[in-house]
Design brief:
The protein has 265 residues and is of the alpha/beta class. The protein contains seven helices and 13 strands. It has a seven-stranded mixed beta sheet with strand order 3-2-1-10-11-12-13, covered by helices on one side. The chain has a six-stranded mixed beta sheet with strand order 4-5-6-7-9-8. Strand 11 and strand 12 form a beta hairpin.
Length: 265
């Protein structure tokens, strides 16, 4: 466990309401409450097909979780078959039923957490990070204390074939001071640091990806979620996976702050 003061962040992703396992949904609710998190971050794909009933179910589930919540949309939160909505109001359902804030932030004495929208209505799966978003995040970071742990929440990983603009935005954001990236989309969990994951030099950040928390759309990995325990000089990332009865701890990695960012312990 980390030394105090510290913060506990629960990271959920790819809920896909409209195609969920009810047993997993109920067990996840109980597991999150047992962790007493300071923040619950949800990195997109709240629904399966961006339909009203699915958004309502996702909203009801999130409302039952500990507050505060920081939520961003994913590509499944944009209509697939409703061509008019996709063209002219792609995030209308998300905005009406979940939140109109597409650039949410949460700040306390230790952490600054920011969400960005990577859903690209011009394609089905691909994500993107535009220059305006990059400049906004960079500007916000410059105003923060240097030891505050800066966390970015996005749906798309930055190196997936259909990711958020390849790795260039990640390099920019890491150099600007982002310490942790929380993403989903691939339904596969991963924890590492950016220098290792992306084979880059310079400053290194912690990269955390989540499997699907509640969907039956499994891709070779059980439902799961992440717990991130944050202190100013250390970060601990736990992966919890569904074993058919409950969510159990399956991986635990720790990182220390160094001159070049963060390194694995």
């Amino acid at each position: 466990m980390l030394s105090t003061p510290s913060r506990v962040i629960v990271h959920l992703s790819d809920l896909h309401f409209g195609r969920v396992d009810a047993r997993v949904v109920n067990a996840l609710h109980d597991a999150v409450w047992a962790l007493a998190p300071h923040v619950v971050a949800v990195s997109g794909d709240l629904t399966q097909r961006a339909r009203r009933a699915q958004f309502r179910a996702a909203r009801a589930f999130i409302d039952r979780l500990p507050s505060p919540h920081l939520v961003v949309p994913g590509n499944h939160d944009v209509p697939l078959y409703n061509v008019m909505a996709r063209a002219f109001d792609p995030l209308g359902g998300y905005i009406r039923f979940v939140t109109a804030d597409l650039a949410p932030t949460h700040t306390d004495e230790i952490t600054w957490i920011a969400g960005i929208n990577t859903a690209n209505p011009g394609t089905w799966k691909s994500g993107r990070v535009d220059d305006i978003t990059l400049r906004r995040v960079e500007s916000s970071i410059r105003a923060l204390p240097p030891l505050m742990v800066k966390i970015l929440v996005a749906h798309h990983p930055f190196d997936a074939p259909d990711g958020a603009g390849a790795t260039a935005p990640l390099h920019t954001l890491t150099a600007a001071g982002i310490d942790v990236f929380l993403t989903g989309h691939l339904h596969a969990s991963y924890t590492g640091h950016s220098a290792q994951r992306y084979n880059t030099g310079g400053r290194s950040a912690v990269v955390v990806e989540a499997s699907t928390a509640t969907s039956t759309r499994l891709r070779g990995e059980a439902n799961g979620f992440n717990v991130i325990r944050v202190a100013t000089d250390r970060i601990q990332v736990e992966n919890r996976r569904w074993d058919g009865r409950t969510f159990v701890l399956t991986d635990d990695q720790q990182f220390s702050r160094v001159n070049g960012g963060w390194q694995s312990d």
